[in-house]
Amino acid sequence: MRPFDFIFMLTRNDRTVADAATHAQTALRAGIRHIGFKDVGLPFDALADLHRQLREAGADTYLEVVSLDRESEIRSVEAAIDLGVDYLLGGTHAEDVLPLLEGTAIRYYPFPGRIVGHPSILEGGEAEIVDSAVALASHPGVSGLDLLAYRSAGDVPSLIAAVCKSVSKPVIVAGSVDRPDQIAAIHHGGAAGFTVGTSALDGRFPAKGAMLQQQLEAISACVLSLAGQRRQQRDRVHRQET
């Protein structure tokens, strides 16, 4: 079974926050080792310092592209290459991005479906989004998908499950996740992980308090609980088979 990862985004409303380095320290102390940021909100030099801080602490790094026009997206991809991030999330111009990533170790997770606006919104019906996901996942250079499930208007748990069932590559659910039941739906739908940014930074996730450390601890506890359920289910299946 795939792992289920919590990716903490140092972002608010699809922009990297000015005090990202301070929040990164809090996250690292809380044991978070999947940490990302967006391609807007901080100048490149500050992003380079932030990336260095995360890498030196042993974290996997993620840059999520939210620019929708081709030229801006290419600049963002070039920045991701210059930084040397582990994962490139988002973006809508895979045909232009894939040649740029050839020869790099960056794992690429573009957005399936029609993406509009800023903050980004996922438009279209489930079938259309699934078709887009299948087409993107067919490219050898695409490592997985970045699904804006909770920024769509349809049945979100159904959409997550449909996309995950239709592709063999991992799916990360990004955007507007702020409740334990959403995380459970993401897990049960078969996704490999999820991102949380604004809700944790603003203290909105149900926790002992609104401080970032308390927020991250509560989210991590949800992940551990779901991982435990997955192990119990696997053990039950194993016992039944033997």
Q: Could you write a compact summary of the structure shown?
A:
With 242 residues, the protein is α/β, with parallel strands linked by helices. The chain is 46% helix and 18% strand.
Give a description of the structure.
With 242 residues, the protein is α/β, with parallel strands linked by helices. The chain has one domain (5-241): Aldolase class I (TIM Barrel). Helices cover 46% and strands 18% of the residues. It contains nine helices and twelve strands. The protein has an eight-stranded parallel β-sheet. Strands 2-3 form a two-stranded antiparallel sheet. α1 runs parallel beside α2 (44-56), α3 (70-83) packs parallel to α4 and α6 runs parallel beside α7 (180-188).
